[in-house]
């Protein structure tokens, strides 16, 4: 899907064959084996991957995910999207992504730590503050980053805080990093509603996914006065016409492990929840959930993509024909995380700390600028928002590659 999107944009930009090939293919694809002794004494070998798409504009930046379905092709696609995301936001990074094919829900904390540390050791020749800087993703968190930081710093012989972002505050993490992606999704949803003339206080929203991104998307939308009527996670889905108390639901999930059983809303089929009437639909869980099959049934005004790749090309074709859904594509919508990761990296290099207000204000300024650039480019060239966002990004990378030339 990522390659198909790239080819369409490269055709629009009329990239020559040399630039097309150089922009499309990743610089490095790394796969390692991770033997881990489990708590019961047994040993299992996991596979870990890291793809570094380009280092043309700076070190690569991107998350590390723990998930049983992780494989190299998925990681490569996510690295490509991260590359365009960094270029669109004008951050001095290339795109990277990593993953280990394990299920953290079935692993103890000690087993997760051993996987993390072994993966980090295997990656040490290929990472560094000026080479590759990782961050949390699906199935990982700030504790994972703390283990990575400790492993790398122990190897280096001194603390290297800039080796990862999304780490704990007392290990030189950044204020605002945990909520950054979800906050950015909600902020851009509000900007889209503003463009459509919909008042926030009268707006409604549906959020698919209640992990870090979905939680903070819902919390921020609620703080704007938006009624969050639908929320789902892997355990089930909830619906309330009056709106769901997001903080109470968060407390319930912390106690029970999922949204199912919450008494402040009714149960609903997760697939049907996506198709309920709302002003904002925010898929913030996994990829390819908006398809050619359900796209004709969506009843939202704004589709803001908190997840990576939640909408298939077939669904995009449906939206172009419909013309009544304002799409904020993933490469823009969920860029809050990497943007605040950039802020964290800068603070680490400078040994300086910003306040949360400074971080979120700078984040909103950058998101607003990128949002306006995408809309103006789309209008000028008659493009869908996704194509416009990716065209701006790919054009930026292609120009830098052309300027630097090709080493013989």
Describe the structure.
The protein is of the alpha/beta class. It has a 7-stranded mixed beta sheet. Strands 1-2-4-3-5 form a 5-stranded mixed beta sheet. The chain is globular and about 55 Å long. It has helices at residues 2-13, 17-24, 72-88, 109-123, 142-156, 177-196, 212-223, 246-256, 270-273, 313-322, 330-333, 336-350, 356-381, 385-404, and strands at 28-37, 43-52, 60-66, 94-100, 132-136, 204-208, 227-233, 236-239, 266-267, 280-283, 302-304, 326-328. It starts with a helix and ends with a helix. Helix 2 (17-24) packs across helix 14, helix 3 crosses helix 14 and helix 4 (109-123) packs across helix 5 (142-156). It folds into 2 domains: 26-171, Rossmann fold (3-Layer(aba) Sandwich), CATH 3.40.50.10860; 174-408, Rossmann fold.
Helix vs. strand class: alpha/beta
Q: Got a strand count?
A: 12
Q: Tell me the fraction of residues in β-strands, as a range.
A: 15-25%
**CA-to-CA gap between the ends?**
32 Å
- Sequence of strands across the biggest β-sheet: 9-8-7-6-10-11-12
Instruction: Please give the share of residues in helix.
Output: 40-55%
Principal-axes geometry comes out as globular
The top-level CATH class of the largest domain is Alpha Beta
Order of helices and strands: HHEEEHEHEHHEHEEHEHEEHEHHHH
| Count of discrete domains | 2
Instruction: State mean pLDDT (0 to 100 scale).
Output: 96
Instruction: Enter the CATH topology name of the largest domain.
Output: Rossmann fold
Low-confidence stretches: none
Per CATH, the superfamily of the largest domain is NAD(P)-binding Rossmann-like Domain
CATH second-level architecture of the largest domain: 3-Layer(aba) Sandwich
Q: From the alpha carbons, calculate the radius of gyration and give it in angstroms.
A: 21 Å
Number of helices: 14
Largest sheet: 7 strands, mixed
Family: Belongs to the Glu/Leu/Phe/Val dehydrogenases family.
InterPro entries: Aminoacid_DH-like_N_sf, Glu/Leu/Phe/Val/Trp_DH, Glu/Leu/Phe/Val/Trp_DH_C, Glu/Leu/Phe/Val/Trp_DH_dimer, Glu/Leu/Phe/Val_DH_AS, Glu_DH, NAD(P)-bd_dom_sf, NAD_bind_Glu_DH
Domain Glutamate/phenylalanine/leucine/valine/L-tryptophan dehydrogenase C-terminal: 174-405
Protein name: Glutamate dehydrogenase
């Amino acid at each position: 899907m990522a390659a198909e999107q790239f080819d369409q944009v490269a055709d629009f930009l009329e990239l020559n064959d040399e630039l097309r090939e150089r922009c499309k293919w990743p610089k490095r694809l790394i796969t390692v084996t991770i033997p881990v002794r489990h708590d019961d004494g047994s040993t299992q070998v996991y596979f870990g991957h890291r793809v570094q798409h380009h280092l043309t504009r700076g070190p690569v930046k991107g998350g590390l995910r723990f998930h049983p379905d992780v494989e190299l092709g998925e990681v490569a696609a996510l690295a490509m999207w991260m590359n365009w995301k960094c270029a669109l936001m004008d951050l001095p990074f290339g795109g990277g992504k990593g993953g280990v094919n394990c299920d953290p829900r079935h692993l103890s904390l000690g087993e997760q730590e051993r996987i993390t540390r072994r993966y980090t050791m295997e990656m040490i020749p290929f990472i560094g503050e000026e080479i590759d800087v990782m961050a949390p993703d699906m199935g990982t968190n700030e504790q994972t980053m703390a283990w990575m930081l400790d492993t790398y710093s122990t190897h280096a012989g001194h603390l290297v805080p800039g080796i990862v972002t999304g780490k704990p505050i007392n290990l030189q993490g950044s204020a605002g990093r945990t909520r950054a992606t979800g906050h950015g999704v909600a902020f851009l949803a509000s900007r889209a509603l503003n463009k459509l003339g919909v008042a926030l206080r009268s707006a409604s929203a549906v959020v698919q996914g209640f992990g870090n991104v979905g939680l903070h998307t819902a919390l921020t939308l609620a703080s704007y006065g938006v009624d969050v009527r639908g929320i789902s996670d892997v355990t089930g889905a909830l619906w309330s016409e009056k709106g769901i108390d997001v903080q109470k639901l968060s407390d319930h999930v912390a106690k029970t492990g999922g949204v199912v059983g919450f008494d402040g809303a009714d149960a609903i089929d997760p697939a049907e929840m996506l198709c309920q009437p709302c002003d904002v639909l925010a898929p913030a869980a996994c990829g390819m959930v908006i398809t050619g099959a359900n796209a004709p049934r969506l009843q939202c005004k704004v589709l803001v993509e908190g997840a990576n790749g939640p909408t298939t090309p077939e669904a995009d074709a449906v939206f172009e024909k419909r013309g009544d859904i304002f799409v904020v594509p993933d490469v823009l919508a969920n860029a809050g995380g990497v943007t605040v990761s950039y802020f964290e990296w800068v603070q680490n290099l400078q040994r300086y700390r910003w306040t949360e207000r400074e971080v979120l204000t700078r984040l909103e300024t950058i998101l607003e600028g990128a949002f306006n650039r995408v809309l103006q480019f789309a209008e000028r060239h008659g493009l869908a928002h996704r194509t416009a966002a990716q065209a701006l990004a790919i054009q930026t990378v292609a120009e830098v590659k052309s300027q630097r030339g090709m080493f013989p």
